[in-house]
Write a structure and sequence with these properties.
The chain is about 45% helix and about 15% strand. The radius of gyration is 19 Å and the shape is globular.
Length: about 160
């Protein structure tokens, strides 16, 4: 399989000063991102940033790797299982990649697979959880919510 140039650089297959500089730059960006992430998490632990408890059970489905871990099928299976047990389920998502009409491909897919489950797309998941409760939900599933610390979660499901 032929790797693209940036994949060769990232994997370490590419040699030379330019590849080394790019890897060094990306490593520095990674360290900066990690420092910001740890600082933010620390602020939540100190309660300088507030975690919001919504009046519904919150289940978070997320991952610790980039893409392709099966979050969407897991959310669908979980929502269907909870529905079969009599729960009124709502799915909350940020809505990354939303088109002009405000719906992302992933949200459209969830709405297609879960026609009787409301899907709320909003970067403010606390607000969408409150809206879901107003609309009659009694449990919410956070799609890709593992790194979302602003809303208090009752259960985390981390996929790898």
């Amino acid at each position: 399989m032929m790797l693209r140039p940036y994949e060769r650089i990232i994997s370490g297959d590419a040699r030379g000063p330019l590849a080394l500089l790019v890897r060094l730059f990306l490593s520095l960006l990674t360290l900066l991102y990690l420092a910001a992430l740890l600082c933010r998490k620390f602020l939540y632990r100190l309660r300088l940033l507030r975690t919001h408890k919504v009046e519904l059970p919150v289940v978070s489905v997320g991952n610790i790797t980039l893409g392709g871990t099966g979050k969407t099928p897991c959310v669908v299976a979980l929502a269907r299982t909870l529905q079969k047990r009599g729960f009124k389920v709502a799915v909350l998502m940020r809505g990354y990649g939303a088109s002009v009409d405000g719906v992302s491909e992933e949200a459209a897919e969830l709405k297609r697979l879960l026609p009787n489950v409301p899907v709320y797309c909003d970067k403010n998941r606390v607000r969408s959880a409150k809206k879901a409760k107003e609309d009659g939900a009694d449990v919410v599933i956070l799609d890709d919510g593992f790194q979302h610390w602003r809303i208090k979660r009752d259960l985390d499901i981390a996929l790898v």
